[in-house]
Design a protein that fits this description.
The complex is a heterodimer of chains A (356) and B (241). Chain A is an alpha/beta fold and 356 residues long. Chain A has 14 helices and four strands. The chains are: A alpha/beta (356), B alpha/beta (241).
Chain lengths: 356, 241
């Protein structure tokens, strides 16, 4: 490998990036858009769940029961009903997601009916969680047992704390594979590759030369994402910043190599984009544990998730951010990530053909 | 005299599936010679020149290009040749100067002021800082030629270097070729302008993947008793059809 050639490639690539508005906006605008979109728009916390109440007891115990719901902050009573069939109407029409029916004799036998709109399963299970929280807290008051519930690692149970670290993985996966997969297929499409491979240039020189400028872009995106996560979204960063940087760079390198590998298999830019989106964005979104818990997937899908490097990266990043786990707890995932990155790099060099 | 031979290749064959693009041809080029590969579109000229450059591995071949085995050492061949492809193959978003600098790096040119030498020889001074994509066709081809001679190659391969250009440009192009050839450099080019055959020292006419005529233009005219090469070519092609 000759440094002079690698340098020539990197410099050329750099000049092309800064003169191409599309490359530039993909490099810097897309991560920002994704961060703000996911950070602000997607939240799994629900507040002010619309609730209707049919209180047929109307005494202090029943009012106390209702106020437990309201004071939790999760529920907002928007309507007090008179008749039983009104609950059906309110839930059917979607005016409320929850109906509370307190029949007469509630004070004596403590029986009440709570109806949850189950058409959105995710919301329903959240509501159920909230309700059981309320009751556990209530029990604490009445029986004077000093029972406290605490959630570990994500004390506020803010879903944003959970999403943003995963989002960093998603951003790097897309940026790296997309940008780098375009760079070689673009040269085939424009005819510049034919001239390039007529020179004594080696595959490793082309690939390393092309990776370097995108690696630098990736670092800028990474720093930007971590800063936004910590400063704007106030995600706690409890762990080792150095280890976080190291893991991110390895993941970035693997992503770039993977993109190059894609572009060695196709000479068309459109196909490169499609393959890189389908094979990085989708698995990172669906199979990495980013949003959907891997433990809840069918066995066969769970096995497939072992082939998604984003899974290891997201695991490590979340643990560093939220738990501050020591490095040796994350070693297994770290080693797998290194192996994946090296494998993609080696394959991309092996598959790069210097033939028309 | 081994050292006097630039290219000596026999049984050169390329098949794409069932289609035989180049069929058992034989090419010898002496050092410092201007060798023209002629033929109609689709005859197999580009495939031939790509195989000689090491850009395309032949299905079958024996022999050497610049003393390197054509089957075994295509990467060594690439060190000592320059190649200008049919399509414009430079970076359109880079300036002429940046394109030259790029290939200076790729060929690891050690000599100083090579870019300046190329710019002067090919009269590119006024286009130096212009974006390559915005240059007129003739200038682009001159720039492509410049990028292929940065490392002073022993053999220069040119695939349709004059196609689509005007006669004035073609004249100045041939002046440059003669200048280069006078430095004992070998030039192999393809063209479908039959009148350009006159400028070559040695020619081969390819038709349907086979060489159907070869020799020196003057010799051929004598043999066929014609004073126009074009007529000889057309006669040969008609015979084959």
């Amino acid at each position: 490998m000759r440094i002079k050639r690698v340098f020539a490639i990197s410099k050329k690539e750099y000049l092309q990036i800064i003169r191409d508005p599309i490359s530039l906006s993909l490099s810097f605008l897309m991560p920002a858009v994704l961060l703000f979109l996911f950070g602000y728009a997607i939240s799994f916390d629900i507040k002010n769940i619309k609730t209707c109440v049919l209180d047929q007891e109307r005494n202090s115990k029943s009012r106390n029961f209702i106020s437990n719901f309201e004071s939790s902050g999760y529920f907002k009573v928007i309507s007090y009903l008179e008749r039983e069939d009104e609950i059906d109407k309110f839930l059917d029409s979607g005016k409320t997601a929850l109906g509370i029916w307190i029949p007469q004799n509630f004070s004596k036998n403590s029986e009440a009916l709570i109806v949850i709109d189950g058409s959105d399963a995710g919301n329903a299970s959240l509501i159920l969680n909230y309700i059981s929280d309320i009751f556990l807290a209530d029990k604490e008051n009445s029986s004077k047992i000093n029972l406290k519930i605490r959630f570990w690692y994500n004390e506020d149970l803010k879903s944003r704390n959970f999403i943003i670290p995963g989002l960093i993985a998603l951003i790097i996966a897309i940026i790296s594979a997309l940008l780098s997969s375009l760079t070689i297929s673009r040269e085939w499409e424009r005819g510049t590759m034919e001239k390039l491979i007529s020179t004594p240039l080696k595959p490793s020189e082309v690939i390393i030369g092309k990776i370097i400028p995108y690696f630098l872009i990736g670092i800028i995106d990474l720093v930007f994402s971590v800063l936004i996560a910590c400063l704007l979204f106030k995600v706690p960063l409890k762990g080792n910043l150095f280890f976080l940087s190291l893991v991110s760079l390895i993941y970035l390198f693997g992503g770039l190599s993977y993109g190059i590998l894609i572009s060695t298999a196709t000479k068309s830019q459109i196909l490169s984009i499609q393959i890189s989106i389908v094979s990085t964005y989708l698995p990172t979104l669906l199979l990495s544990g980013f949003i959907f818990a891997i433990e809840n997937m069918p066995d066969i899908i769970q096995t497939i998730t072992y082939l998604v490097p984003a899974k290891y990266f997201i695991f490590i990043v979340r643990n560093i951010f939220l738990k501050g786990s020591p490095v040796n707890y994350l070693l297994f995932q770290f080693i797998l990530l290194v192996l994946f990155s090296l494998l993609f790099f080696a394959l991309s060099i092996k598959k790069f053909k210097k033939e028309v | 005299m081994e050292s006097n031979i630039s290219i000596d290749v026999r049984n050169l064959t390329k098949k794409f599936g069932d289609f035989v693009a180049v069929d058992n041809i034989e090419i010898q080029v002496r050092k410092g010679e201007i060798f023209g590969i002629l033929g109609p579109n689709g005859a197999g000229k580009t495939t031939t020149i790509r195989m000689l450059c090491g850009l395309l591995l032949p299905t079958k071949a024996e022999g050497k290009v610049n003393n390197f085995d054509i089957m075994k050492n295509p990467e060594d061949i690439k060190k000592s040749i320059g190649y200008v492809s049919q399509k414009f193959s430079l970076y359109e978003d880079l300036t002429s100067f940046e394109n030259l600098s790029f290939y200076e790096g790729i060929y690891r040119v050690k000599e100083k002021n090579v870019k300046e030498w190329v710019i002067k020889t090919l009269e590119l001074e006024e286009y130096k800082n212009k974006t390559a994509g915005k240059l007129p066709l003739g200038i682009r081809q001159r720039l492509a030629l410049g990028c292929a001679i940065m490392h002073k190659p022993e053999i220069l391969f040119l695939d349709e270097p004059t196609s689509g250009t005007d006669p004035v440009y073609r004249r100045s192009f041939w002046d440059i070729i003669y200048k280069f050839s006078s430095e004992k450099k070998t030039i192999v080019l393809t063209t479908h302008y039959l009148e350009e055959a006159e400028f070559c020292e040695n020619i081969a006419l390819i038709f349907n993947g086979k060489i159907i005529l070869k020799g020196r233009p003057n010799q051929l005219k004598e043999n066929y008793k014609k004073d126009n090469l074009e007529e000889i070519f057309i006669e040969c092609i008609k015979d084959k059809e």
